[in-house]
Amino acid sequence: MTAFICHTPARPAAPRCCPRVRGFTLIELLLSVTILSVVLMTTTSMLNASLGQLRIAEARNGQFREVQAAFETMCRRLEACEINPYYDYVYTSNDTNTVPTGYKLQSDLHFVSGPANAGTAPVIGSGNRTGHAVFFHGTYGLSEQKEWKGLDTLLNSWGYFLEFGSDDTLRPSFLNSSSGPVASRYRFRLKELQVPAEMMRTYALKLNTQTTRAKVQEWYTTALADSSNVHTVAENIVACVIFPMVPDGSTTSTGATLKPEALAPAYGYDTRSYQYTSSTSGLAEVTRHRLPPLLRLTLVAVDDVSATRLQDTNGSAMPSLGLDGLFLDASKYDNDIRTLEDTLVGQKLNYRVFSTTVRLRNARWNGTY
Asked: What is the CA radius of gyration of the chain?
């Protein structure tokens, strides 16, 4: 008997279900490219703007670098100024053949600062000068004698002031001819008075015997007349403010607290004012042969583009920045600085303010008035 086995054919496996892969449409691609282009354009624009500001900042820093160097040099010179006071007898009318009337502080040197051509007692009083000026002595070792080179303790007359004018004397003479290729540059300039030790006339003038302001100041006014003693330190400095101050915590003899401007309410400071004033007390005696303990030094400079704009507007005339009525009252220092800044901003001038407080290390200040 034959057995039959029935084989049922295997059913084919169901095909695996594969997800459908969907690509980007043309509109989506175009939109993505557009967004990417906008992002790249914005980033490039921001980068260019940043690089432009960086170039402007570097250019301004380069222009103000000369002023910064001059400012630091001025601070160092003032910090080391000297007056070498000593005590000696005081005689009536400086007649040493009479009986002494007292025993007071004396000095053969001089320190004077204040408005150069403004106020009631200008330090210079002539020329196209503006802002404040200062004149003093110090052991800076300047000499034109070869055999004196290296003597770093030689005593010199020194000073700083602002002057407006052309650069005709600062460049080769052929540039100043009528057919010269370069026009004159009219600028504010910080000037430095440097009197070599062998040319200093302070001792020869016997300052202690003088009774007029002109004679007392002759040691530096005569030196200013000699152009070989005056050098340009930096250009485009439109304001120089020298503010003699008392330290915080200073008091009067009665214990009252002193304001910072107590020593120089009108910015003027003169260690020899007692010689030509009728006052025998007050500031004339407090400042008698004594250096101010602190000097707040401020320089305001504009960049060369702004200086060129001022020349284009004013020609050879000194630009009016309102300085004639500023920095005459020390109690208004902060207000005057803001007023000057508003004026510079109003005239669309790029500027920078350099300011610091210099401690005169040779000052003798006991903290009382």
From this structure: 36
